[in-house]
Amino acid sequence: MDATDELAKAFAAELGLPYASDDLHRTLADTRPDLVVITSPPALHSAQAAAALRAGAWVWCEKPPCLSLAEYDAMLAAEREGGPYAAIVF
Predict the structure, then answer these.
(1) Which residue from 19, 40, 47, 62 has the least number of CB within 10 angstroms?
(2) CA-based nearest residue to 38, from 76, 78, 3
(3) 3-class DSSP state for residue 37?
């Protein structure tokens, strides 16, 4: 998955990957990943992490996890007892 469909398709073609998309929710539904690595701009981290957690994926998120405590609370609220959880790379 990437910011634009063109970038996603180019990356997938380069690596021979069968799937490419610029839509996080569609990607989560179509591929049902076990782990999502978030390397987008920090303003997107909280919403993307919460979406991945709600879809049942564990999250590996680059720092900073988000831009406010409210966004962090929203991310944590998407975690479930026993997982999946979000891990922040510091």
Answers:
(1) 19
(2) 3
(3) strand
